[in-house]
Amino acid sequence: MMKRELEYFFAALRFFTRLPVPAWVGHTQDQLDHAARYFPLVGILIGGIGAAVMELAALALPVGVAVLLGMAATILATGAFHEDGFADSCDGFGGGWEKAQVLAIMKDSRVGSYAALGVGLILLTKWNVLVELDAAFDPPLLALALIAGHAASRLASTLLIFALDYVRDDDSSRSKPLAQRMSTDELVIAAIFGLAPCLLLPPLDALVALAAAALATLLAARYFVRRIGGYTGDCLGATQQVSELAFYLGLLCSFT
Length: 256
Hints:
The protein is built from eleven helices and no strands. By secondary structure, the chain is mainly alpha-helical. Helix 5 (81-95) crosses helix 11.
């Protein structure tokens, strides 16, 4: 039982990051089918990497530089996996009208103007919000906020897998192995890891942040359903990015 759950976790770690996993884990379809339950736990790990880099950098560098290095560490650890999904979504939904056109544009590896502007703006906004959060409360709490934001935002993406239909029908999609409807038990596991870091934040502030992330997730889900009838892997990445930013914005609103 424990070995199987570890295999599911490492499958999620392999799929969503560039971090190494033990050789004994192997690579099976069953692991991928059940890996999404540990998506938020991967978020805790990625957020922890970013927080550690940020805190170490802050010992010798200005907070703005430290936050930027922390963000860069999370991007390197994931190989810009979610940022790429957000970029493709910006191009697809920005440049396409019909469902087929949106999906075709999202599948195109070229970066369009919507993608470039979208990624630039969301990263710049995220950096600015985190710097403002540092001024709003003690630096150790900023590190916890970063971890909580990464975990909660990956829970947001997991909710799309649970609630919506996967709309691509081709076997070449990278995210198709994860496009299995999750059971309620699997969602509970994801929710535990997605919400646990919020317990380390002030309760009222954490609730405001989670409400902001939940609203962003709901709006994203409704938009995806209206435009293409469900979600793709790129939509999951876009939801993670948008809900992470919404989480930090909720914290900032609560503290100011």
